[in-house]
Amino acid sequence: MLSRLVRPLVLGLLGLTALASVAYADPDALWKIVHEKCVVATAPCVKVNAGEHYALLKDQRGVAQHLLIPTDKITGIESPALLLSSTPNFLADAWKERAAVDAKLPHPLPRDAVSLAVNAENARSQNQLHIHIDCLSTDAHAALAKVADTIGTDWAPLPIEIAGHHFQAMRFEGEDLGNYNPFLALAKTLKDPQTEMSARNLVVVGATFSHGPGFIVLSDIAPPAVIGHAGGEDVQDHSCLIDPA
């Protein structure tokens, strides 16, 4: 039998877990947080950028994970709005916000330990676009380090499996993403982006190539979740075990 002191603590923790489960069980939970709270008074978000139409929210999971979420209703990677020139480059914005991840860690992450992930429609729980900004897993980091300089500027199959995924990969060179929009780059490879984008995962990983900084962009078709690997988020480690030192 639980002691009088321990029992309330355990019940309290169970209650918090139940609340978290309820929040994520609602597919509109993130939209409600951003639309009804963050754009009104910022909290619980850590930042709202009205000019670029996004909010930055510390995720419930992980020590450092943050989510960049549009303040306009954009359901996910399948949304036609992401292919419009008038829509902000949310992945470029997410890269600029990586300092929020660093702020939760003992040391800043090197660029090749930072990842941005967007899950396919069937590999996500929320019906509002959210970009996961977090640590790359140690396994994914080691695998990409081996092949980084072999990745070209055109999409091609990655010669290695990462986190159960067989990605297509390409490189983009530069300190930041600038006007390069990975959503548009991916859409250009598809015969019918309006129907095909929904099945795609999209991941952007910082890289330091032999001749300078850049990015590795990864994409694949999300397999059924029952396989155990589904979202682009699989390449991340929300416990941030990667050594940033």
TrEMBL record:
Pathway: Phospholipid metabolism; CDP-diacylglycerol degradation; phosphatidate from CDP-diacylglycerol: step 1/1; Lipid metabolism. It is found in: Cell membrane. InterPro entries: CDP-diacylglyc_Pase (IPR003763), HIT-like_sf (IPR036265). The keyword Hydrolase applies. It holds the Pfam family CDH. Its main location: membrane. The keyword Lipid biosynthesis applies. Residues 1-25 form the signal peptide. Its EC number is 3.6.1.26. Belongs to the Cdh family. This is CDP-diacylglycerol pyrophosphatase. It comes from Allorhizobium taibaishanense. The lineage of its organism: Bacteria, Pseudomonadati, Pseudomonadota, Alphaproteobacteria, Hyphomicrobiales.
